[in-house]
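Sequence design from tokenized structure. All designs in this work follow the same two-part layout: the structure record, then the generated sequence. An example of the structure record is given first.
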């Protein structure tokens, strides 16, 4: 697959896993991973970028594979000490992870962009692929609930995704420009655009909602392939299925395909959902059936290979 230029749209865990698989298949200068920044927030004076960091830690083999976020072999002295002081300790910042947030916050305060900091950190940690934020501007995902709005991390971590969701909005999206890396990738010679199995509503939609990005992707000559984050009616990780149910959508891969209608050319579903293939094809897209659950590195590489093959077939 040398010479294949791929743009992968990623949220946290699921996106990072597929991105890791792609790094084992593609030359490093052929892959751009764009990370959602709608989850970002300022906390304890620090700029936290959970999805960028999940991608960075995963690609540099520093990630905690069980938790999905943060670093492996982490210690928690800082956040315990914060709790002892009566400070906010609901968002668990590990001691090693803290260095990332302090470093980023300092560089941003000195006038560097999030793209520059992310690119330097990736280089420093030995990552060959381009990892880019979706934007260098501030965009904040807000979760709408029947009792009011919640900032994303309050909903996700502090309130453990318990509140019922009635919708989302991305504060700042109208004024935000796609990052230079995302814009360059979209304007370049792409062979495939992959939408990883991240949460469609809060991980992928913020990227698609950036000015010109959704339109550029649907108009791209390269095939656009999405992987379903819903397998057998449940989300592999995170609240996607719960959100779908609360938004009145059946929790099926087919509904995710419908969400991406008009944008994608092909949809990858798990073997367990094979019976939905005809209904998905009827929406107007091709379907590829394979094993989509990525338990180990082999699974990640295999799924990445299947996605690239599907894209090649769609391009032919
Ligand atoms: N997720 C949690 O469920 N609990 C945490 O305490 C937590 C801390 C945390 C710290 C740094 C970081 O980069 C991510 C962290 N996450 C935590 C994950 C993160 O909030 C979510 O997984 C993403 O925003 C969703 O993609």
């Amino acid at each position: 697959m040398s010479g294949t230029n791929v743009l992968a749209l990623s949220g946290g865990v699921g996106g990072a896993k597929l991105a890791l698989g792609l790094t084992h298949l593609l030359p490093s200068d052929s892959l751009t991973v764009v990370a959602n920044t709608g989850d970002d927030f300022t906390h304890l004076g620090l700029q936290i970028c959970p999805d960028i960091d999940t991608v960075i830690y995963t690609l540099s083999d520093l990630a905690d594979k069980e938790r999905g976020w943060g670093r492996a072999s982490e210690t928690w002295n800082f956040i315990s000490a914060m709790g002892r002081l009566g400070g906010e300790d609901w968002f668990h910042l590990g001691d090693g992870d803290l260095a990332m947030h302090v470093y980023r916050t300092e560089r941003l305060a000195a006038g560097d962009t999030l793209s520059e900091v992310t690119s330097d950190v990736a280089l420093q940690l030995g990552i060959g692929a381009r990892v880019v934020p979706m934007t260098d501007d501030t965009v904040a995902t807000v979760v709408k609930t029947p009792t009011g709005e919640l900032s994303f991390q309050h909903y996700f971590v502090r309130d453990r995704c318990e509140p019922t969701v009635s919708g989302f909005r991305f504060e700042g999206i109208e004024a935000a420009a796609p990052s230079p890396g995302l814009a360059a990738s979209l304007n370049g010679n792409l062979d495939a655009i992959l939408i990883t199995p991240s949460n469609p509503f809060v991980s992928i939609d913020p990227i698609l909602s950036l000015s010109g990005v959704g339109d550029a992707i649907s108009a791209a000559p390269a095939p656009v392939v999405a992987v379903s984050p819903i397998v057998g009616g449940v989300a592999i990780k995170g609240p996607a299925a719960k959100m779908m149910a609360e938004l009145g959508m059946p929790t099926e891969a087919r509904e995710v395909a419908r969400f991406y209608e008009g944008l994608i050319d092909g949809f990858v579903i798990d073997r367990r959902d094979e019976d939905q293939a005809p209904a998905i094809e009827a929406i107007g897209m091709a379907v590829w059936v394979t094993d989509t659950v990525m338990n180990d590195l082999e699974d990640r590489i295999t799924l990445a290979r299947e996605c690239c093959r599907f894209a090649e077939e769609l391009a032919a």
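The chain has one domain: 6-69+113-145+170-315. We note this feature because it recurs in several other targets discussed in the main text.
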